[in-house]
Amino acid sequence: MASDLDFSPPEVPEPTFLENLLRYGLFLGAIFQLICVLAIIIPVPKSHEAETEPSEPRSGEVKKPKAAAPSTNKRPKKEAKKKR
Fold first, then answer.
1. Each residue of 49-69: pLDDT tens digit?
2. Claim: this prediction has a pTM higher than 0.70
């Protein structure tokens, strides 16, 4: 009766390359999501450079004032409706 029972492990096929890629990709995705959630929860102190007068333009950056140009795709306004 003891010889009738087979206690050997079941034959499981080796995972293919795509199955391994999917498994490790899912692990990396989960780790990335945890890092993103922790970055939202844990505040990071700002550096001193960001605190000192952000209104000053950086060297090399020149801000051009935006001119109020009329839009070419809008129709001109009618001056007044004619009365009948």
1. 655 555 555 566 555 656 656
2. no
HSE (side-chain half, CA atoms, 13 Å) at 51: 4
Query: Residue 2 carries which side chain, given as an amino acid letter?
Result: A
Q: Where do the H-state alpha helices sit in the chain?
A: 17-41, 48-51
Q: Which residues contact 63 (CB under 8 A, 6 or more apart)?
A: 57
Which residue carries 């809008």 as its tokens? 74
Query: How many angstroms separate the Cα of 33 from the Cα of each of 5, 24, 28, 49, 69?
Result: 47, 14, 9, 29, 44
Q: With contact defined as beta carbons under 8 Å apart, do 23 and 15 qualify?
A: yes
Q: Is the pLDDT of residue 34 over 60?
A: yes
Cα distances (Å, whole numbers) of residue 54 to 27, 45, 49 = 40, 16, 8
